[in-house]
Design a protein that fits this description.
Shape: elongated
Structural class: alpha/beta
Strand content: 25-35%
Strand order of the largest sheet: 2-1-3-4-5
Low-confidence stretches: 120-137
Helix content: 25-40%
Length: 246
């Protein structure tokens, strides 16, 4: 999980950075000394969580959090402050955590764990928004990227490719990693995607044909794409029969 640390005191920032460095699943991607600098860092670094002081010169952390909450895909905000009097205002500003200085390691780990769970719930909610009672009714694929939650229209997807535990969506906008497994995708979209390899599902609507590559194996030829997913030997006859019926 990517973290932005915001505090006008350099020593306070450095302490939080050291604490986060002890966590295997978290990484500090940027630091900021004030609200404006924090907003720029969010745009350029796309953090999942912002750890932010409240009392800072210029715009304070509460005001900055309200600005962050208006973003299209805002990061979670956790306040790290020396005062407990702002707790109610902090949660009104949609903060997901409130830590009192000096922050303890176990407290920081717990609040970041909670923020991670919220991100996963938000992704699941976005997926559910596109579903109806029919198993293949979802119209978008959701992915957590540095820019936030990205929604990829299903009609723009050329194919899905699995590589060990990761699945990459190849689509009109480029390539994006997603959390879905290939098995889940095949079950949900069996009417519109076909398996051509143990690690690849191809959109039927983009298939133009199958051809033999110079190396001897078969590949799919796709409309509007230079990508050519490999067809495994065991799927060649089935794909050939499917093409004959198209």
């Amino acid at each position: 999980m990517d973290v932005l640390v915001v505090d006008d005191e350099a020593l306070a920032r450095e302490r939080l950075v050291r604490m986060i460095s002890r966590m295997d699943e978290c990484e500090v991607v940027a630091q900021a000394a004030g609200a404006d600098e924090a907003m720029q860092a969010i745009q350029s670094s796309g953090p999942d969580v912002v750890l932010m002081d409240i009392s800072m010169p210029g715009e304070d952390g509460l005001s900055a959090a309200r600005r962050i909450s208006t973003m299209e895909d805002p990061p979670a905000v956790v306040f790290c402050t020396a005062y407990d009097k702002h707790a109610v205002e902090a949660f009104e500003a949609q903060a997901v955590g409130y830590l009192l200085k000096p922050v303890r390691q176990e407290q920081l780990e717990q609040v970041l764990h909670n923020a991670r769970k919220l991100n996963r719930m938000q992704l699941a909610a976005l997926d559910d928004m596109g579903k109806t009672d029919r198993p293949n009714a979802r119209k978008h694929i959701s992915a957590k990227t540095r820019r936030g939650v990205e929604l990829i229209p299903l009609e723009d997807v050329f194919y899905f490719l699995a590589d060990q535990k990761y699945v990459t969506v190849y689509h009109r906008g480029g390539e994006t990693l997603i959390d879905d497994t290939l098995k889940e995708l095949e079950s949900e979209f069996e009417a519109s995607f076909v398996r051509v390899h143990r690690n690849a599902l191809v959109a039927r609507s983009y298939i133009e044909g199958m051809e033999r590559a110079a190396e001897g194996h078969y590949v799919m030829r796709l409309r509007d794409s230079d990508e050519k997913p490999v067809v495994s030997r065991r799927h060649v006859s089935r794909i050939r029969a499917m093409l004959a019926e198209m």
